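Readers outside the structure-tokenisation community will struggle with the description of the input data as it stands. I therefore recommend that a typical entry be quoted early in the introduction. An entry of this sort, consisting of the sequence and the corresponding backbone structure tokens, reads as follows:
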Amino acid sequence: MSLSNLAPHLPRLFAKRGLPLHLTFFVTARCNAKCKHCFYWDSLNKGQTDLTLEEIDKVAASMKRVMWVAFTGGEPFLRKDLPEFAKILHDRLHPVTLSINTNGIKTDEIVASAERLVKNCPTTFVGILCSLDGLQATHDRIRGVPRNFERTVETFRELKKLSAHHPNMGAGISTTFCAWNQDEMDEMFEFVVKDLKPDNWDLSYVRGKPMVPAIGVADVAKYRRLKARIEQAFASGALNYYQNMPLSRVVHAKERLATKTILETLETGKFQTPCYAGALSAVISEEGDVYACEMLSEKLGNLREAGYDLAKIWEAERARSMRTFIRDTKCFCTHECNTSINLLFNPAAYPKIGREMLREWTQPNRVENFGSDRPHHDGVKVAPMTTQHPVLPNAPATPVAALAGAVPTDPNGRAEKENGTGQ
């Protein structure tokens, strides 16, 4: 990310009005995994009619330049036309970055599609992240697919080879930290950092309403410690995502601040920073439904019904009401992508980002611990899921029940029997 890439978006530091510059695109609801921590599980494989390339082109034509597009789903690479989908957005919207998460199950198809896609987007950095949620037994159990771990590792290694021939491509690992994998993260760290050696390791705290609710009850202290180890790997160069990036110090400092913000949110369950979902960030579903955020269930409109004109939805009263609701209620969550955008486009955050940069410059060998674990009467800080899925103003918000101490269940609501804890 260079200053010239950012320049078209700099006015949004001070003026949040306008079309979104951060798009999360659920490109399909088809999926070949059954992930227990997935918050989208009850929308998958329901026979939805995905937006066609012609429809996507109409939507993109109604928009302006964006900074970041994230492809998700479902499994994005189940769309055979994903490279053409990406090309439309590349040519119309000129994103600085396109990120894609994949479960890595179909190695040959994913690698072939990725190669076409990267060639289709020569001026965009394409980061492809293979989801890996533990070592073999744990990962396959969470994902619900035999040999998923083995296939994902193979896919990652092939993508890493491919990235060596394409300077606009990165190959990384994405992990959802949850109750089922938190106790093997030391071994996971050794495998990912020292064996796989990805460009990037993206660690997200489980959120939303997962298929198996108890998987969302994870220990924040263990999450904090793993985040600190990953940060040290970036600082030492063992993970090199930031090393060759223009404005690398700024981006890295902002990401450290994002981690601290998320940890503070998990620890306190309180608002930390203004959220620009519905203003700078938008979510578009596979059938064209538009949302302010993944965690807000209120639909702002549908692109097919709006003649594929995003501005018609974004500037309507419903979207304005949602922005007012987010601002006035100080809506918050732990979504890493939104937290990153919220800090990057908040002028009040820049003194903190500056302090992070200064610390890195003056104390380059300091081990970042992201603060100390807070004392709790039981010795462990367990974060219940505090995500809210509110509707528009004047209707009550519906908080997800706190699940600390809950009995793990399978998707049909039956108590799981594996070692009595579901972990």
